[in-house]
Amino acid sequence: MTAISSAAKTRIVLACLLLTVPALAREPLTDAQVRDAIIKDSVAAYLATGHPCACPYNVARNGSSCGGRSAYIRPGGAAPLCYPKDVSDGMVADWRRSHQ
């Protein structure tokens, strides 16, 4: 087994750092992408309660479409965000502040 020189170790570390720079320099998310993230979080939070029908487009345990049985449609109770129109500009701004 050969020993790695100090200079070689430095080059390896620098190469690894250079490979991670593109991941750190990501483009900021668009408002549409942020809205999608907020919707996914909202639906996931509802589904985590054990109820399968957050939104009309979700699928019930029996495989049928949730449709009018969804929490989104039913008055009162939970109000998951299901569509981009449900996410206000203020919600987008709050999400950006909390995910910097």
Structural features, described:
It is a single chain. With 100 residues, this protein is mainly α. It has one domain (29-98). It has 3 helices and no strands. The chain has helices at residues 6-24, 31-47, 89-98. α2 (31-47) crosses α3. The protein is elongated, with a radius of gyration of 22 Å. The N and C termini lie far apart (45 Å). Mean pLDDT is 84; it is low at 13-18.
Question: Judging from the principal axes of the Cα atoms, what is the shape?
Answer: elongated
Helix content: 40-55%
* Distance between the amino and carboxyl termini: 45 Å
Instruction: List the secondary-structure elements in sequence, H or E.
Output: HHH
Structural class: mainly alpha
- Mean pLDDT across the residues is 84
Gyration radius, in Å: 22 Å
Q: Which strand-content bin applies to the residues?
A: under 5%
For the biggest sheet, the summary is: none
Q: What is the count of helical runs?
A: 3
Total individual domains: 1
Number of strands: 0
Oligomeric status: single chain
Contiguous runs where pLDDT drops below 50 for at least 5 residues: 13-18
